[in-house]
Amino acid sequence: MAGHGTDGHPHGADRLCDAGDRVYSRAVRRGRLPRRDAERVPCLLELALLHPDPDDMDWLVPTAPQEVMTRLLRGMYDEVSASQRRVGSAVTAFEWYAGLGRQVHAPPVAVEGPAIRVLDGLARIQAAMDEATQACTTEVLTVQPGGIRREAELSEGLHRATALRGRGVRMRDLYTHVARHGHGLLSYLELMGDAVEARTLDEVIERLILFDRTVAFIPANAERTMALELRHPGLVEYLGTVFERLWRLALPLTAPLPDTGIEGISHREQSIAALLAEGHQDAVIAERLGISVRTCRAHIARLSETLGAASRTQLGVRIAQTGLDGPRGPAVTLPGRGSPNGR
Q1: pLDDT at 4
Q2: Are residues 216 and 208 in contact, defined by beta-carbon separation less than 8 angstroms?
Q3: Are 207 and 318 in contact (CB under 8 A)?
Q4: Residues 171, 192 contacting (CB under 8 angstroms)
Q5: How far is it, in rounded angstroms, from Cα 24 to Cα 11?
Q6: How far is residue 180 from each of residues 149, 176, 251, 289, measured CA to CA in Å?
Q7: 25 to each of 10, 16, 20, 61, 92, how far by Cα in Å?
Q8: Whole-model pTM above 0.70?
Q9: What's the pLDDT at 218?
């Protein structure tokens, strides 16, 4: 296969070239194919989508689509987790450096305004946001944790969104999957039309609003009564990269949530199971998924019933046995139950 290296096929298993798509699909339908049929698509062997038939080396057999899906989901999960860890580390570093800055009188630098400004109080935060809105000309990126968005929260920022839409500014919003169930959000998106695009994830990072890749706002305390206004190019670029990676992994609001492959267990309950397996308490899980603690415990109770667990310890064992503590693979049939349906 000389002369057919990866230079001609610069992609991964999540975005096959047209030739690779045709050959792999044919291999899955037929069960195997002659090695010569894959000579023009070396990417399939390099990505382990095809491998030699041990009974006849002149033939290639395909990797099962379910196994490929499991690899892709595991990679997505690892990317999201790594991004969240990096953001947490960055916020900790911001606080540490801000503390040092209060102790040292640094010489003046030739920049336009401070690179990091602490906004104390909702009035100052709103004023700074309004100023950034007026200066924005291209795009606004936001991350909105916390589950279902209350209509009061959406109405508070409606004047800014309307002004941005009037100037042709593109807006992209990331929410948790729970936000899909809020009528206020659906009404807001309908009102804004094509100016706003929304996607959702199981979990998102803490609140972030980024204007024109030049100024970003993040919370400075848990109550969100203080905020950091960031204008340092490096920090802003970093946050923009985090957003873009999360955006690529998120699902459009109009797309259905993926099926868990286990009868009686919803996508949300799969997410709860994974967080339980990591050792998180109910309140932490509820906060990360944007639901109430009461709702979280109701889902845990249904998980226990579905998996036949009589205690939290037994539930942890059942979660591991069914593979709910990580990305989903092929469908699993629970003991004492029929085959999973195709919900």
Answers
A1: 40
A2: yes
A3: no
A4: yes
A5: 15
A6: 9, 8, 11, 12
A7: 19, 11, 8, 11, 47
A8: no
A9: 94
Asked if residue 11 lies in contact with residue 43, where contact means CB atoms within 8 angstroms, the answer is: yes
For the stretch 217-253, what's the b/e string if a residue is b when 16 or more beta carbons lie within 10 angstroms of its beta carbon? bbbbeeeeebbbbbbeeebbebbbebbeebbebbeeb
pLDDT at 153 (0 to 100): 63
Q: Strand, coil or helix: what is 179? A: helix
Looking at residue 268, its pLDDT comes to 77
CA gap 99, 116 in Å, rounded:
12
Sheet holding 208-211, edge to edge: 116-120, 226-230, 215-219, 208-211, 139-144, 170-176, 196-201, 251-252
Q: What pLDDT was estimated at residue 253?
A: 84
Which of 142, 208, 130 has the alpha carbon at shortest distance from 171?
A: 142
Which tokens go with 266?
């919803």
**What pLDDT shows up at residue 149?**
61
- C-beta separation of 191 from 205 below 8 A: no
Whether residue 205 contacts residue 290, with contact meaning beta carbons closer than 8 Å, is answered with no
Q: Whole-angstrom Cα distance, residue 34 to residue 27?
A: 9
CA 312 to chain centre: 28
Ranges of the chain whose pLDDT falls below 50:
1-7, 106-112, 328-343
